[in-house]
Amino acid sequence: MLRDINLTVRPGEAYGLIGQPGAGKSTLIHLFLGFLQPDQGRVRLFGSPNLEIARQRVGYMIERSGYHLRYQADEYLRFMGRFSDMPGRVLKRRVEEVLQQVGLTVVADQPLTTFSKGMLQRLGLAQALLTRPDLLLIDDALSVLDETEQREFIDILAGVRAQGCTIFICGYYVQSLLHLCDRIGVLSTGRIVAETTGQQLRTQSSNIKIDVDQLSPTLRQQLTGIAPAVTCDGHAITLRPNSRHLQAVVLRALLDAGVTVQALRSLENPLERFYIEALRQVRQIEPPVVVQPLSETRSLPRPDASAPPSVALPTYPDSPFAYPDDEPPLPTLPAHDETYAAPQHRNNDDPLLNRLLSHRTASEHERTSNDESGQRTYPQQ
In this structure, which of 82, 112, 227, 355 has its CB flanked by the most CB atoms within 10 Å? Predict the structure, then answer.
């Protein structure tokens, strides 16, 4: 159950919502799409309360459990694109564009049975991008990917965002979200209990690495002379430990030298630290669940060690399953008898039915009875 949610995602922004399974992430996305109606409050997409019309500008991707594996990649996208009433020529051209956008052009004519999980997730992203959405909703699509596939997927999303698409992605905490999202929120017990910015988390990391295209020997000497915490290795600069001031000085030196910064990566997981701290504070604020003891308790009778083993269950006087003292005991099963007793049937006026019953009795006897010599015996007709 969601409560006290007040969230605004700005155009062109990438927002990440992390939380444990069952926290309400999928429910929130279903509210965005109009699949669910809030009991209180309102939901607006692109400033409009008419979600049915507004969601035509939305691309939606979920964690998929299966595809129509008999299709090829391009065939599958053309099949799904027909539901958007896209003209044939436009759809064909758009399928080629999204396959190139997600890096699946080479395998466009391959059956989906040959695709890995990472390739299938990229295919799902391509489907969500078919209609050129202004808002992309991604529900827990990274959980099935390994670390390398997650980074590749995030890089693709960064390219989508660079084209002006707003991204709302939710799932369990993933380190790669740190390099995509402008803001990251933590959803717990139906509420957004903490929020921060990606930039703030990146600068909070104690150790970071800056990837660049090239470093001249002169620039390397200049950077390592800034502070003992700066080391250069190939096409990367490591700040260990990092500080906001040191990071700003190094980035300024790279900018003045005309060096292109390709990535700024944390060697730790500040997102995980932020997430765990947010959950810890929630546990301190939320009142504990108190289980009230029963007003009346009963203890089962202890078995007598000297008594013989028994499978009888104890009963209580007021139990609905207790029998009165004068209730006759259940009949005991007789010992195994080799003699076959044919089942008795009540008399019936229908001669045909009597013959059928007699025939069934003989068949049952044939399947179950044997004499001492191993030969089958049959009842006397």
Answer: 112
* Tokens representing residue 124 in the block: 């799902």
My answer on whether omega of the bond before 329 falls inside 30° of 0, hence cis, is no
Residue (of 77, 81, 84, 85) closest to 102 by Cα position: 77
Q: Which of 163, 198, 233 is the last residue of a domain?
A: 198
What's the CA gap between 156 and 149, in Å, rounded? 11
Is the full-model pTM beyond 0.85?
Answer: no
Q: What is the distance between the alpha carbons of residues 126 and 104, in angstroms, rounded to a whole number?
A: 9
Looking at the structure, tell me whether residues 165 and 258 fall in a common domain: no
d(Cα 184, Cα 278) in Å, to the nearest integer? 12
Residue range of the domain that includes 260: 206-267
Handedness of CA 271, 274, 277, 281 (dihedral sign): negative
CB atoms within 10 A of CB 188: 20
Q: What is the CATH number of the domain that holds 261?
A: 3.30.70
pLDDT digits (tens, 9 = 90+) for 38-49: 888 888 888 888
pLDDT tens-place string over residues 290-299: 445 545 445 5
Tell me the pLDDT tens digit for each residue of 211-227. 888 888 888 888 888 88
Residues 6+ away with beta carbon under 8 Å from 168:
9, 15, 17, 29, 32, 135, 136, 137, 138
